[in-house]
Task: inverse folding
C-alpha cells in the first residue's frame, strides 16, 4: 500500500518543464513584456480517468456472463462460464488486458486533451516561443513529441499501479483486503488538490494583508 501511494504521488506531481521566452515589445520608446517562464507538462495528466474507463470495461463482460448463466441453452452457459473465467480479476490474463487498457486509455485521453489546449497557437498569439523551436507548426510538433515521450512513463507507471495489488499478492502469497489502485489514486489526488487549495488560500490571505 505504501509503495502504491508513493508511486501515485510521483505520477501526480511529476512534470517536464518546457522553457518559454516572451518577446519584448517597444511602444513609444519603452519596452514591455519580455522575460521567461515555463510550460509544466505533467507525466500523468490523465489522472484517474484511464483506470475508471478500464475497470468499467473489464467489469462489463463478467456482469453480462452472470445473466447468461441462467440460460436454458448449454452453449450459452458454457460461453458464460468461459467469460467469467477469463475476466476473473485473480487471473494473469485479466491483469495483462487490464494493464494494456490502462496504458491505451492514458495515451488516448492525454492526446485528446493536449490537442484541445492548442498550446502552440496560444504561444504564437502571445508572442512567446520555445528557445530553438520555430513558432507555429514546429512548436506543436515539438510539444507533441515531448508529451508522447513523457506519457509513456506515466502510462506504464499507471498501468503498473493498477496491477500492483495482484503482483504483491502473488509474491507474498497473502490474500488480504486492501484499497484498490483506483481508490488510492482518488484519495491521494483529492489530498493533493486540497493541499494546493489551502496553500492558495494562505497565499491570498497574506497578499491581502500586505495590501491593507
Result:
Amino acid at each position: 500500500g505504501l509503495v502504491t501511494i508513493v508511486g501515485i504521488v510521483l505520477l501526480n506531481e511529476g512534470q517536464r518543464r518546457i522553457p518559454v521566452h516572451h518577446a519584448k515589445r517597444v511602444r513609444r520608446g519603452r519596452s514591455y513584456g519580455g522575460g521567461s517562464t515555463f510550460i509544466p507538462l505533467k507525466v500523468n495528466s490523465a489522472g484517474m480517468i484511464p483506470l475508471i474507463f478500464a475497470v468499467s470495461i473489464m467489469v462489463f463482460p463478467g456482469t453480462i456472463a452472470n445473466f447468461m448463466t441462467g440460460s436454458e441453452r448449454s452453449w450459452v452457459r458454457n460461453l458464460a462460464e468461459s467469460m467469467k473465467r477469463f475476466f476473473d480479476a485473480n487471473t494473469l490474463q485479466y491483469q495483462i488486458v487490464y494493464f494494456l487498457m490502462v496504458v491505451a486509455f492514458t495515451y488516448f485521453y492525454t492526446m485528446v486533451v493536449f490537442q484541445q489546449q492548442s498550446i502552440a497557437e496560444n504561444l504564437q498569439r502571445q508572442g512567446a516561443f520555445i528557445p530553438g523551436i520555430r513558432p507555429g507548426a514546429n512548436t506543436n510538433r515539438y510539444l507533441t513529441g515531448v508529451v508522447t515521450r513523457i506519457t509513456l512513463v506515466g502510462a506504464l507507471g499507471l498501468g503498473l499501479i493498477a496491477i500492483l495489488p495482484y503482483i504483491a499478492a502473488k509474491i507474498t502469497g497473502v490474500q488480504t483486503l486492501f484499497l484498490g489502485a483506483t481508490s488510492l489514486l482518488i484519495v491521494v489526488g483529492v489530498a493533493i488538490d486540497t493541499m494546493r487549495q489551502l496553500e492558495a488560500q494562505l497565499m491570498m490571505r497574506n497578499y491581502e494583508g500586505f495590501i491593507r
